[in-house]
Write a structure and sequence with these properties.
The chain is mainly alpha-helical. It contains 7 helices and 7 strands. 54% of the residues lie in helices and 12% in strands. It is rod-shaped.
């Protein structure tokens, strides 16, 4: 299991713990500085140990405290994910195009990337072939086709039956 999956599963457990009123009260007491009740009941000890197993609380010998490791891992993971989504990747979720950029320069880069992914030099595609390849990236194939033609990235045959790579890159 990857570090990111492990962290996501931990946060699911945190959410489940927060749904439990007694666990939520205990966490609130620790986070507010009141500390866990002394002596803790059997159910309170069980809840505290559950928070510890999740990775949100730790016992440092003098009492219960927030364990910052889970928070640090989550922030580091989010930062890494954001770094991996720079450039045109920020418009994609995996290989799927989530949104077309509003800025013309960014939009050009995205449609250039898509054009290079769907058609090779010297290749000519019928419209249905082009649509099939574009649909892998985004459901609005007509919009993508139009942008590619408008940006000069694809050239449409005079009779409208096919498309080939344009002269602009």
């Amino acid at each position: 299991m990857s570090e990111q999956q492990n962290t996501a599963e931990q946060w699911i457990q945190v959410a489940a713990g927060l749904k439990n009123p007694s666990m939520r009260r205990l966490l609130g007491a620790v986070l507010s500085g009141q500390g866990a009740p002394e002596p803790a009941s059997k159910s309170e000890r069980k809840d505290l140990e559950r928070w510890a197993s999740i990775g949100l609380l730790r016992h440092d010998g003098s009492g219960w405290a927030l364990d910052d490791e889970l928070l640090e891992k989550t922030l580091a993971s989010a930062s890494a994910a954001k770094a991996n989504r720079s450039g045109i990747r920020r418009f994609f979720d995996g290989h799927r195009l989530q949104s077309l950029p509003a800025k013309p320069a960014d939009r050009h880069e995205v449609v250039l990337y898509l054009r290079n992914a769907i058609i090779g030099d010297g290749e000519e595609l019928r419209e249905e072939q082009l649509n099939e390849r574009l649909r892998v990236f985004h459901p609005d194939v007509a919009l993508l086709r139009r942008y590619m033609v408008d940006h000069g990235l694809l050239q449409r045959a005079a009779d409208g039956t096919g498309y080939r790579m344009g002269t602009v890159s």
